[in-house]
Automatic annotation (TrEMBL):
Keywords: ATP-binding, Nucleotide-binding. It holds the Pfam family ATP-grasp_3. Residues 77-271 form the ATP-grasp domain. The keyword ATP-binding applies. The keyword GTP-binding does not apply. This is ATP-grasp domain-containing protein. Signal peptide: none annotated. PROSITE patterns: ATP_GRASP (PS50975).
């Protein structure tokens, strides 16, 4: 069996390449341990490499910045079995303003859009914390502002079963599988830029059940499949601040404490199956470049 693992930043985005390489390494090790030969792009022409290598593989997964994920996932879906989020749902999640509006209309707490005062300014089609800043300035072209929520930052790592896309015939109605709740280390620089430094996992905050419920609802509303990371801020409510329909940096920490292979979970979920729960041992800190240390 062959698995096509295509991580965009390793060859195309130096600023994010270390994070991308760390996620790719964890996934490659897991698929190889699960009996797969792993195939990956060998050059910077990402689309050409998908067309060349994906057809020879039994399944595939694209990891790319959110604004590129639809394009490359849609391409992958034409050549092999996609075990990640469906391309159409990835397209919705790439537009942070549209995502916020959809979640709000479905009763999920999100920071409301604002134009005046001190606020979070983010790209409409961004990736993680890149380009996100705390400022009283007016948003620039292609940006929008949201109310700044003071609180604790967490992410929830989930794996969704089939809902839509090229394998929707595998829909079973199973709810998303919780992997972990992760504490995020996010700091604000002197220039107001938000910087993601890493985090720790697993954590069990006082409102854990509520955090997981909100994250799961957000994932279901947006129709995400495969691995997804839901970022929240815990304050007076549980606010969803970002939805990442792809593997995130937290995976490097999760793999260090989870008994199950992430490869097996992703493949099973793509057919509507998988475990009811995962088994975790230990507690680790991880940085954005993939270093993992026991706590």
């Amino acid at each position: 069996m062959k698995a096509f693992l295509a991580e965009y930043t390793v060859c195309n985005e130096p600023q994010l390449a270390a994070e991308g390489a760390a996620m790719l390494s964890v996934l490659q090790q897991s698929f190889e341990a699960s009996g797969y030969a792993v195939v990956s792009p060998e050059g910077s022409d990402f689309a050409a490499e998908i067309r060349r290598r994906a057809p020879e593989c039994d399944l595939g997964l694209v990891i790319a910045p959110d604004h590129l994920l639809f394009r490359f996932t849609h391409l992958l879906e034409q050549f092999t079995h996609n075990i990640g989020c469906g391309s159409m749902n990835a397209a919705v999640c790439a537009n942070k303003r549209r995502t916020t509006d959809i979640l709000m209309r479905n009763g999920i707490a999100v920071p409301e859009e604002v134009t005046a005062g001190r606020k979070i300014i983010k790209p409409i089609t961004g990736c993680g914390a890149m380009g996100v800043r705390l400022s009283a300035d007016e948003p620039g072209e292609g940006e929008f502002g949201q109310r700044y929520i003071e609180g604790e930052h967490y992410s929830v790592s989930l794996v969704g079963s089939r809902v839509t896309g090229n394998v929707c015939e595998n829909y079973t109605g199973r709810p998303p599988l919780l992997l972990t709740v992760n504490r995020q280390e996010i700091v604000v620089g002197e220039d107001g830029a938000l910087m993601y430094l890493g985090g720790e996992t697993p954590v069990h905050p006082p409102r854990e059940r509520e955090i997981v419920e909100v994250a799961t609802n957000a994932m279901n509303v947006l129709g995400c499949q495969g691995y997804a990371g839901i970022d929240v801020v815990v304050a007076d409510s549980i606010y969803v601040v970002d939805v990442n329909p792809r593997p995130t940096t937290s995976l490097v920490g999760i793999a260090a404490v989870m008994e199950e292979e992430i490869a097996g979970i992703l493949v099973a979920a793509s057919h509507g199956g998988g475990p009811e729960a995962v088994h975790l041992t230990g507690h680790v800190r991880f940085d954005k470049d993939g270093s993992v240390q026991p706590v």
